[in-house]
Amino acid sequence: MKIAMLAVNAKLYSHQRLKAAAEERGHELTIINTLQCYMNIASRRPDVYYNGEKLPTFDAVIPRIGASVTFYGTAVLRQFEMQGVFPLNESVAIGRSRDKLRSMQLLAREGIGLPVTTFANDPKQTEEVLKLAGGAPLVVKLLEGTQGIGVVLADTDRSAKSVIEAFRGANVHVLVQEFIKEAGGTDIRALVVGGKVIAAMKRTGAEGEFRSNLHRGGSAAAIKISPEERSTAIRSARAMGLNVCGVDMLRSNHGPVVMEVNSTPGLEGVEKATGIDVAGKIIEYLEGNARPNKTKTRGKG
Ligand code: ADP
């Protein structure tokens, strides 16, 4: 196969691993800098240009579109989809996963366990929102945060109110969520590829830290997940329409609750913690599924 990978930084571990896994299996993988692509979006022929040349037609495209380039990256990906190139994840599904409210609404509709989560626009509703979320302790989260930045634990209603007001004063949106204390600073990430969980790890925050992000000093280890956790991860991927994703869950007293579904999961943490060749499984998924014109939306969604 001729595979294109849309990525801004070709040197990242995940990108190098996917390239090596493709080449080991006899494929050709070209890393294309998403932000350097240009196109005539008004043309009936959805070509993509790069380095002064029109790109050839690929058999598959692996979008590794970071949160900061979602807007442009999904536009480039749509051009590929309109050409009938098979995307590992479709642009529409990536767009869904980048909108936390939309994602949670989709998961809730499927009856997937979620932490009680409330949202309001007007700071006048702060008191009501706190009540609706069940009162302190509460987690207040920036709607657009990543890597645990902008995730705050408020022990009292009063501190929750001040944090919400501070964020709203800075004109950013926040979610207010029930604090899953029993998770003990540990979350679970299940890697779903083609409707199966192929690897799972637990991440535990540094001492005294309730956030388990590896970027915040957390550590990762392989974990055996329960059948309920497995099915929650698979159903979440399906609800989002993602072929490949990382589903982040917390172990609550009332079963697994999903925090986030990540459409561009990093491979380094999970491969090192579990010893599983995740990149290889992703390439094998493409081998089994990438056919021309097999995308669901062809960029129309
Ligand atoms: P980000 O997307 O920025 O990583 P998350 O929503 O994943 O933010 O939160 C970061 C970490 O904080 C999670 O990995 C988890 O360990 C912890 N956390 C987040 N929400 C809750 C919650 N409601 N209850 C308990 N811990 C939480």
Structure in words:
The chain is 32% helix and 25% strand. With 301 residues, the chain is an alpha+beta fold. The chain has three domains: 2-95, Rossmann fold; 99-113 and 182-285, 2-Layer Sandwich (D-amino Acid Aminotransferase, Chain A, domain 1), CATH 3.30.470.20; 117-179, Dna Ligase, domain 1. Strands 13-12-11-14-15 form a five-stranded antiparallel sheet, with helices on both faces. A four-stranded parallel sheet has the order 2-1-5-6, with helices on both faces. Strands 7-10-8-9 form a four-stranded antiparallel sheet, with helices on one face. Strand 5 (60-63), helix 2 and strand 6 (86-87) form a beta-alpha-beta unit. The mean pLDDT is 94. Residues 115, 139, 141, 145-148, 151, 177-180, 183, 187, 210-213, 248, 250, 259-260 line the site of adenosine-5'-diphosphate (ADP). Adenosine-5'-diphosphate is lined by residues 115, 139, 141, 145-148, 151, 177-180, 183, 187, 210-213, 248, 250, 259-260.
Quick structural gist:
By secondary structure, the protein is an alpha+beta fold. It has helices spanning 13-24, 70-82, 91-97, 100-109, 126-132, 157-169, 227-240, 268-274, 278-289; strands at residues 2-6, 28-32, 49-50, 53-54, 60-63, 86-87, 117-119, 138-142, 151-154, 174-178, 186-193, 196-204, 219-222, 244-252, 255-262.
